[in-house]
Amino acid sequence: MEHSITVAQALIIALWVALVESRALGYATLNLRFSPLMTGLVVGLVMGDVPTAMIATASIQLIYMGMIAPGGAMPSEPAVATAIAVPVAILGGLKPTEAIAVAVPVGLLGSYLYQFRFFLNTFITRLTDKYAAQLNDKGLNFSIIILPTIISFALFTPAMFIALYYGTPVIAKFTATLSGGRIFHILDVIGGGLAALGIALILQVIGKKKYLVFFLLAYFVSVMLQPLKINTVTFAIIGTIVAYLYILVTGEKTETN
Hints:
Elements: H1 7-22, H2 27-34, H3 36-47, H4 50-64, H5 78-92, H6 96-121, H7 125-133, H8 137-178, H9 182-206, H10 212-224, H11 232-256
């Protein structure tokens, strides 16, 4: 297997991460930043292996499901983690849980880079105050939206390009030499544990005790029907039907009372 990434591939992925981290498109890019799935799709398209990319990204998504971002800051940057871990998984032939072990430290480093972006933006506040005192709409638009976006691209594009073009092949070669060994077995176990932790966190955040029975029902149904190789769409339809029946029954009970 060739463990390399082209200049064009590294540049496109780097520009995508810079766009997501800049939040130039408002809440659209904010959601893209918090969810690795779209970044994984872009990486898969660029690398020419969408199935492998999405399988690895789905596992990475699990560890970020329960994370919150107070003030817009996260302890780990999902977009940065995915942009590095997924190419490594594709080039090195990693399992999804092994890709998680790569994504966690990379995402932590990405959070420091994002905090440095905040630091750079503090130098714009004087300019913003000046335009606000002058009631200059165009100036405020420049200092609040355009200039921070330029700073984000200037910061993330070269950093991600260097990490992708020079760092990803090295990590892929290193992981390929260790594939099947004890270290990778440890990474596999840790990655699976982190995914389970992500699910537990999201249940703790949005779950209610009276609804846990539906979670258990879905789990045991998926285990029992696994030999039939039923896809996710079928499970989604079954879940929708169960939810509709629950609302129908509880609604009729309320009307009767």
